[in-house]
């Protein structure tokens, strides 16, 4: 048997998504994209509990997960269970594997990114290759003001790039620079490198680069982003 979650009510009603360990749900930076304004950027994640059962865990989202109107921290993804993420209602279903192949429609952020990258001609290999490093501790960006308010992005590795045309961290503010800032791993902290000095500020100050502290505020246009270490 293969387990799916199906949208009963909300954006993309009728869509079904295969349940897999590690899959995230959210409005922007997630595997399963839910275009619901009450859903956080990365809202919840599917994992396997100690009994080998799939569960959906709330990632400290603003509006949480609800069952029968009651907010819960996690949901056991058993056949027939109905739950809500934001204002979107889901139902858990299980089908035979042969049938699952016919209607599986997993629309993920990774697939969208893959499609966009397939249209780009790759550059010639350079002598210096990009090495991804872990953010230790991990970093959470919370949009507290602006068009992306309540969106949360959890970052576990870097470097990362943010901007209005970024395929990594996309900024929707109409005044956001094409290349706004970068986040680089540092010793026990994350370094902020501002690519548009004057248009992007840290704690209302114009800087070129600085190690981020818990509670720092990155701002541009009408947008305010709070930094939190996890």
UniProtKB/TrEMBL annotation:
Any stretches that span the bilayer, and where are they?
none
Q: What is this protein called?
A: FHA domain-containing protein
What is the species listed in this Swiss-Prot or TrEMBL entry?
Answer: Bdellovibrio bacteriovorus
Q: Which PROSITE patterns match?
A: FHA_DOMAIN
Lineage, broadest ranks? Bacteria, Pseudomonadati, Bdellovibrionota, Bdellovibrionia, Bdellovibrionales
Superkingdom to which the source organism belongs? Bacteria
Q: Which Gene3D superfamilies match?
A: 2.60.200.20
**A matching Pfam family:** FHA
**What SMART domains does the record tag this protein with?**
FHA
């Amino acid at each position: 048997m293969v387990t799916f979650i199906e949208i009963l009510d909300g954006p993309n009603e009728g869509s079904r998504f295969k349940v897999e360990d590690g899959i995230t749900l959210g409005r922007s930076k997630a595997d399963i994209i839910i275009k619901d304004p009450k859903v956080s950027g990365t809202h919840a994640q599917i994992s396997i509990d100690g009994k080998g059962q799939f569960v959906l865990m709330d990632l400290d989202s603003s509006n949480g997960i609800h069952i029968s109107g009651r907010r819960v921290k996690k949901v056991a993804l058993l056949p027939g269970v109905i739950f809500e993420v934001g204002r979107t209602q889901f139902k858990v279903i299980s089908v035979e594997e042969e049938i699952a192949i016919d209607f599986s429609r997993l629309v993920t952020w990774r697939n969208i990114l893959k499609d966009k990258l397939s249209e780009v001609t790759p550059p010639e290999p350079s002598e210096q290759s990009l090495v991804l490093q872990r953010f230790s501790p991990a970093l959470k960006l919370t949009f507290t003001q602006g068009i992306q308010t309540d969106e949360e992005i959890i970052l576990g590795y870097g470097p990362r790039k943010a901007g209005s045309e970024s395929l990594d961290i996309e900024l929707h503010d109409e005044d956001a620079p094409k290349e706004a800032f970068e986040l680089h791993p540092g010793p026990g902290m994350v370094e902020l490198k501002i690519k548009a000095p004057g248009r992007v500020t840290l704690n209302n100050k114009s800087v070129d680069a600085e190690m981020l502290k818990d509670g720092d505020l990155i701002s541009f246009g009408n947008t305010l982003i709070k930094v939190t270490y996890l």
